[in-house]
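The authors assume throughout that readers already know how a fold can be written as discrete tokens. In essence, backbone conformation is discretised, so a fold becomes a row of integers matching the chain in length. A single example would do more here than another paragraph of explanation. For illustration, here is how one protein appears when written out as sequence plus structure tokens:

…
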Amino acid sequence: ALSLLLFLSVTLMGVTMYAYLVKVGARRLGALFGAVAFMFNGTAMVWLEFENLVTAAAFLPLVLLCMEWYLEPRRRLPAACLGALALGLIALMGHLQYLIYSALLLLFYLAFLLLRQRADGGRARDAAAVLACFAGMCAGGALIGAVDLLPVLELLRQSSRIERVFTFTGFFDTLGRVPAAFYLTLLFPFLFGSPHLGFDFIPRLLRQEYMNYNELCLYLGVPVLFGLAAALVARKSRHGRFHLGMTALVAAMMSGTVAYYPFFALFPGMDRMNPTRLVFLFSFTAAAAAVKENRN
């Protein structure tokens, strides 16, 4: 049953990513490339032993696809309902941390939608409709996920981890960060070792709790790096700029730069959660940004 769940989750990652990329203007071959890159990114592969990452990742592109439909008046209501179902399934099947990171991406994407709508001559009532759809999706998702979220919230009140309070610097020095040198593993995934090789030279402080191969694996495959390089120099679509910008922002955040501070100070949970697991978002945005055929 677990093997079947993992197989279906990874397959659904590809299907939903393909559908999303086609919707935002990618050619079919480019969408297939992005879907495969997302399905088999290093983060997903090393976390297959803990199924909550791929089960959450399977529905993230579907939520963004539903949000794209908010710009089409006839599709708004079914899109909000389907988005609520997908968001609720992320809550039910994933880890709370991945739900929070997904919410962070969705808020950025909402702002992106509203800016596009305004640039295309949208009126105030159109923006209000998009906001209403988003609010309805979030409310519906919370109701669907409540059967799991309520026990999780109860568990958090009894967790010793939630009682810890960090300064901004102490947060990364205690939990971890992606070291600058570790980005070399985008080219050479075993540069600092791996469990199956039996050695570990990951640069870390002795007290950092989450500095290991599984937590830090951000390998995307060399073809994705070529795609990202091409996207950087080519004429960029609006979606291309968004995903490249999000990739850069997430990389800066999980590396422990000041870019993380506003979220540390203001976004619920991000002053206590292991920041290296932002690799979850990095893998998605990088795979989307690498699709150079994007033409919207």
Summary: The chain is about 65% helix and 0% strand. The mean pLDDT is 92. The beta strands are 193-194, 199-200. The first helix runs from residue 2 to 23.
